[in-house]
Design brief:
The protein is α+β, with helices and mostly antiparallel strands. It has two domains: 85 residues, F0F1 ATP synthase delta/epsilon subunit, N-terminal (ATP Synthase, domain 1), CATH 2.60.15.10; 45 residues. The protein contains two helices and ten strands; from the N terminus they run E-E-E-E-E-E-E-E-E-E-H-H. The strands form two sheets. It has a five-stranded mixed β-sheet with strand order 2-1-9-8-5, with no helix packed on it. It is elongated, with a radius of gyration of 17 Å. It is found in: Cell membrane.
Length: 141
Amino acid sequence: MAEQSVLTVNIVTPDGSVYEEQTTMAIFKTTVGEIGVLPNHIPLLASLQIDEVRVKIDGTDDKFEEIAVSGGFVEFSNNIATVVANSAERKENIDSDRAERARKRAEEKLARAKQEHDVDTLRRAEVSLRRAVNRLNISKH
């Protein structure tokens, strides 16, 4: 019987490696849509949204590990998917209380920026809010 092909998923941030595992499938939310990558996929380079990276757990049909990423990009070649992001957290490492506090702070900044018509602060607050909500959503799965 032939050995099943696998791919390696590496997720790195400026602070170092956050995740490295082998799998038979990984799913990434890119800026142009969701993409599933299987072993021997053609090479690709894509920008990522603030969302989750899902990595199929070996030996299961429908269970995935979830890693929160704050954008970045994914590069895939030679059965290695490398995600480079400003920040990333495994589901089990997310502090939901801290994420909830970050969500509230971002919502307050967003409201102030709208009142003051401060476009730069508004954009930063929107990104902060998306990051906090992403972390909260993943922590609750």
